[in-house]
Every structure is written in structure tokens, then in C-alpha cells.
């Protein structure tokens, strides 16, 4: 462990006996091959630290409702320390060459691959998704590091021809500075690397607030980043639950912080954007979705059903880009509903660690309650339950559900469900379904299935979303610009997302 002189006298990390006992207990709960990846402390200026108050947050396995372990309940003081540490580390890290940052990120990427089993297990235990899905997330998460390592060495400037003979115009790219990163629980690893990879590649330093439901994946990634050669202070992590208001406020309003990157609900996104506006800092936001999924009369029904399965039920419906409203042409409605129900009926819900499990629990019982409310509301308005419709008592599980004849005024058509609930509605014309699909305040993703090339172009262009899946239910990749329009957010992540962490500086040379 590297101990900067400034931190040698701190008392936050001077309890080795307690730390070892905590590690032993955590190792038993997680069952990792390498117990050193289990971190139960926050990370500031290169040190694993407890909260000044000694308070902790209990992290629950949603499949068993048992405690996995605890992390510190940090507050305003620790957040300021983390921001200060990031500021102190910025001059040196921002001066590293793009090739140096590329090499560190590639080492980080390879470490994630080497520790795939342990990292995947962490995701499953704290998030609940199946181990197969967790392995997929780890690969997806690592791919952002590889992508942004390669982007680091391609942050080109430009030469702009001047109208004056003795003047030369040049632009260069420079890191924005200290970045605040706030992430959600549904992809506890990938939502970290999608932001962190871009920030590190650009030469920025960071303060991360992971979700209290799934902090261990983030902390394990930080440990691997440290091993990969990321210097002290470049990455800092503040864990919090009850103090999230003051922590988030400081991360957005601090004059030291020059950019905020957030993924989460639209309501919280608006609040954080308002706070960030106090200093006019750069903001990247990926907020809520309400994705339409359209099946036209000329669609390949087998492909459409397969697309709906992966799009709607992946991670038990807990993704921001999952189908929330499924519109099916009346001529193929019965066939699609029947084939979908046949596939969904074969699902096996259970602990994500069990090989037979196809779909894990929801993140907590509050999520279960919301799905049930959406089902009950739709049924009260005339929808029919084709499959499922009820939660598993005294658990975080909700039976995969299909509703038919869902009316337009149902809550599910206005709110993001975030659960294993497929709501089917008939339509008759292309014009009608486009109007239904766009009748929402958000616009993150949309999907449709059709074999008519003219319709493919028309519908893709008319859907008011930032991302469209044509004849596919799976669009996420590290190489694409990920983001929405309307109230689904600002900016893009992945793909060209390194630009969100760079400033363009103009240099004009005169007297030549």
C-alpha cells in the first residue's frame, strides 16, 4: 500500500486488527478466489478509509435478503477530502502522455479479464443478476477500458486555415479537470468503467459515489486500477446512503469539480443538473427511459420474440434501455403474445448463483412493490394477465409477467417499470404507433421489428429517442454513442464519449 506523507498521520486507517477481522468475515460471505478484492472501506488519496463517524451501510444480497457486508457511511467532510485529493493529483496525471494513460488502462483491462470469476461473483451477490449475466457485464465493463485506452491516443487537435497570411490557428484537447461520477446499481461495474475509463483516458482525476446497494464491485475495480498503476488521488470513492444529499450536493457544487457524470432517474438528474449549474460545469446525464418496442405486421415473429426476451427481461427488466411498452400489430398480436408467453413460462427465477436460474431477484422489495402497482393499475383499467402477475411473498422476486390489452392510460405507459413486466398493446397503423411511441417525456431507446426497408428508415428517423434498435433487442456496446434526448439526458457516453471529458483550446499564432 502506498502512503503519501500527507496521510501518514491519519487515524482513519489505523485499525489493522478490525480490518482483518472484517476481511475474514467478508471473505466467507463472498467466497472469492482472491479475498483481497473485497474492500469494505472507502478510498481517498490512495488509502482505504473508514468514515469519521465510524457509521456503516449494510449491503444486502437481494436473493437471500442477508447481509453481505458493510461499507462506510461517509459525509460532507470525507467528500471534501476526496475532492481535494483529486485536485492534488490532477497536475501530474494530466501531464502524463496519452500513451502512458493507454498503457495503464490496458493493464487495468487485462486485470479485469484475469479476475473475471471473482468480479462476476461480486456482481451477482450484490445485484442479484444471474452469474451468466454478471459474466457478460464484466466483459462489457472491461471493454470500456480497452476502448478508451485506444481513444486516449486519438484525442487529436486540428489546424484551421486562417484567412490571414501571417496567422495560424491550432486547437488542442485538454482534460476538463476533476470529475464527479455518480452511478446506479443495475450495472454496478459497467456504469463505473463507462465513465471512469473516459475520464482517465482524457487525463482527468475522479471522485466516485457508487450506489449503496452495490458498492463492492466499484471498490474491487478501484483495487485493480491501483494495481494497474493509477496513481494515488486519481481515483477516489465515497460511499454513502443517508448522507447522499450533502455528498451529492458537494460533488455538484464544488468549484474544484469541473464536470459531473450521472446515470440514474430523471428526477435526480434534474436536481443534480440544477446544482451543477451553480458553477456552469460540464454535465453528462443518462436518465430515465420508457422504451417502446414495436412489432409490425411484416416482422419475423421468431426474431421479434427473441428480441423482446433479451430487451425486456434481461437483468429481470432492470435496465434503462429495456422495453417498457410493447406495441404489436393486430394481425400478428395473438401469435406474438402466445410465442412470448411460451418462452417466458420456461424462465426459472431464483438465486443468481444457481446454474438453473435464468432470472434473478429485483434489487429490493421497494422495486417489487412498484412492479405490483403497475400490474394492479393496468388490470384495474382492463388489461388481462396472460402470465404471472404476482410477486413471490417475503422476497425480492417478482414472477415474470405478461399483460395483454394494456390501455394507453395505464401507469406503465407513463412510468418506467424497471421489472419483469411485459405490457402488450395492439395497434393498426404505422402513423398510430409512432404517435404512441413518442407520447412520453423521455427518449432514451426504442426498438422495432420490420422487414420493409422503407419502413425501417421511416420509423428509425421518426422515433424520438437517442438510440434505435432495428430488428434487434440488444444495442449496448462500448463503441457506440450511448445517450438519450428529451428528458433522458445530456451528452453521450461510450463511443466518442471521451470528448465529454476534454476541453478544446484554440491557439492563434500571429506574426509569422
Tell me what the structure shows.
The protein is of the alpha/beta class and about 500 residues long. The protein has 14 helices and 22 strands. The protein has helices at about 15-30, 75-95, 100-115, 115-125, 130-150, 190-200, 215-230, 245-255, 265-275, 300-315, 335-345, 365-380, 430-440, 455-460; strands at about 40-45, 45-50, 55-60, 65-70, 160, 170-175, 180, 205-210, 235, 255-265, 280-285, 290-295, 325-330, 385, 400-405, 420-425, 440-445, 445-450, 465-470, 485, 490, 500-510. This is Succinate-semialdehyde dehydrogenase. Its EC number is 1.2.1.16. Keywords: Oxidoreductase. InterPro entries: Ald_DH/histidinol_DH, Ald_DH_C, Ald_DH_CS_CYS, Ald_DH_CS_GLU, Ald_DH_N, Aldehyde_DH_dom, Aldehyde_DH_Superfamily, Succ_semiAld_DH.
Brief rundown of the structure:
By secondary structure, the chain is of the alpha/beta class.
